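Hey,

The postdoc asked me to send both predictions to you directly instead of through the lab channel. I've kept everything plain text so nothing gets mangled by the mail client. Protein one:
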Amino acid sequence: MRTALVIGTGLIGTSIALALSARGVRVHLEDRDPDQVRTAAALGAGTEEPVTGRVELAVVAVPPAYIAAAVADVQRRAVADGCIDVGSVKGGPRRELAALGGDPAGYLGTHPMSGKERSGPLAATADLFEGRPWVLTPTPETRTEVLNLVLELVALCRAVPVVMEADAHDRAVALVSHTPQLISSLVAARLEHAEESAVRLSGQGIRDVTRIAASTPQMWLDILSANPGPVADVLAALAGDLEETVRSLRAMESGDQERRAGGAARIETVLRRGNAGRERVPGKHGAAPAVYETVGVPITDRPGELARIFADAGAAGVNIEDVRIEHATGQQAGLVQLMVDPMAAPRLIASLRERGWAIRQ
């Protein structure tokens, strides 16, 4: 691939443009907001110059409600050999494009399964998609040349192609992406008017659950408006589970020993179902989730502390598989949790202690 056009210079569009530009592709940038185009271009994502002639592939990175019209416009202008979108909903835009008289052979709906709670070009990175699934939804009408261009794009972004049917994709993301966003927002909303004394007790658990609640509301309203049915189906099933859980907890308040035991048994079932579901979430590089040993290291909030921990771990010859930081409320201190292979944990602990670190296990 030598040339591309990216329409929409938000987080996803700019990240794609950065990845392509870094690998020698000439990328043209378009956006209805000229400031965003200038920002993306200044970051090295591509050029503001309009397309002259045709590019090989156009990437439409706009909200779901505008995908079909944007793809139809690309095809009408004949500025690209093929066109894709990277929206988080696939079935609706395809049907809308057909209603607009678009060419299904020159279009392929895709969805890179990666993002951040921050939006806009300044949040973009060239490695955003590295190792992440990138869903492709080709149909029998899709031209082979277009599919090949898209596979090359995915490879240039170092993502992993996954082929799915469009409506199956929409049901899947309702479960693994769209519903979690709403649940995170609902839990975070409980904090809005909570007592300050309660909020100050917040630990890593509430931070984990509410992290994505910081996402832009308008962006998620656009996404949910394009996939309301499948999301409502998942929430309806979840509501049933919640109602049963509430009844079980009420039973545990009862003075009747048998009712308390029954309620506790049902809560245990919910927790075990959660364990089983969590075990199915892919781990590092898409593999089955591994079980890591956690080594806790208290640190102060001083420049260079994290870098020193990682350097000392590297000197011990131990690979850090994952890391979490738990901040101490009201103090300039925190706890760094280093996740490592269980076989490597004793070596890491001994090495860090030799270098003066306190260890909390």
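Protein two:
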Amino acid sequence: MKPSLVLKMGQQLTMTPQLQQAIRLLQLSTLDLQQEIQEALESNPMLERQEDGDDYDGSDPMGEGAEAASSTTTQADSYQESTTPSVDSLDDDQWAERIPSELPVDTAWEDIYQTSASSLPSSDDDEWDFTARTSSGESLQSHLLWQLNLAPMSDTDRLIALSIIDGINNDGYLEESLDDILSSIDPELDVEMDEVEVVLRRIQQMEPAGVGARNLRECLLLQLRQMPENTYLLTEAQRLVSDHLDLLGSRDYSQLMRRMKLKEDELRETIELIQSLHPRPGSQIESGEAEYVVPDVIVRKHNERWLVELNQEAVPRLRVNSQYAGLVRRADSSADNTFMRNQLQEARWFIKSLQSRNETLMKVATQIVEHQRGFLEYGEEAMKPLVLHDIAEAVGMHESTISRVTTQKFMHTPRGIFELKYFFSSHVSTSEGGECSSTAIRAIIKKLVAAESPKKPLSDSKIAGLLEAQGIQVARRTVAKYRESLGIAPSSERKRLV
């Protein structure tokens, strides 16, 4: 094929770097946005944080609408401890002169006065970790090792105990078999299976009760054996767990009463004793890091009107540094001046992107509140169906933009903190020709299950019938799907004695 030159004309959509930055900031969560802003402050000298009480002077050193503000800096008088007389040597007049009416600006109390906190290690010390030393959380493994270090035993038994603890999962169960644990020990120690079982029993006596069990039955029996001997119905509970745990799991109470020869009241109290135990004892010790949610939007009711406002404390306010911006010269094409001009332009676009993000977030949040006013007034059962297209059409934006705005953005309401995506749900047709939100249906199912008879819980078919009586037409499989999403067990597992 002979090569040739071909000229073609066409249209292509491209996004400018400014638009790409605006879209990227739009989809960031509040915590990610705070980190992005901090990185921008550290890399761009033209950006600075606007503190509370700072006033804009309205000047524009470049004549292009840059947000500039006059910043005043007050130098604090240094406090020399070497020239400070002791408290005992000061009379009343001198003591009054030593106490200023106000502390200098940009100083902390500890910078001026000696406090008890000064005795703490310096924050610059890499070895000092306040969170690590004051945190109450610890892992199950470390908790067991701490108890092991306090237990007197031989070196061989301690080595066996370490192997057993390594095989215990976060729920407190021993996942490794005793044969595998025995094979992992050095053969030169000549350890036998009896020794491994003895060490395992010692670990099973540690806290939390039930740790080191190999199955649920053993876990419950270990906890029952550590209860006081005079505990009411303790023997019956041990016999039920040991011999009839399968019947308890299937809720076959009639069989349990017949085989254990117990009355209904005695069986109910026995089951209550078993239910007071922990099926996963390790979860009492294992603790993860707390996850904090910072709301982006705050909704409150004032004078019978719902008000929507941005959480100003979530994102710091930025502005262009007027002093650095005033150093930029128009006609200068030097490398330093070009760098400063580029930094100034980047700072302006960054601030503009943040303003665009806030405006878009406010528009979307306001429309959501308008659509879901019933939820704010009456709760989940009044939730209306809502899809991305409805909000996109109301604010004049694309659905992809609405999806970015509602992802990892949270709204603080009088009913709690919810992700913006929570207010979007599909709909189900009603007998009157209307629509009912799937969130409202879940709330109704939860309400029906809470009011059901414990001896005869509602089946999925029965719940579907009750919803149909309210004009909501849903299939049984749909009810089962909603029930599972709520974490509600099937009717056979909800049956219990009263």
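Summary for protein two, as requested: DSSP finds 23 helices and nine strands in the chain.

Thanks,
C.
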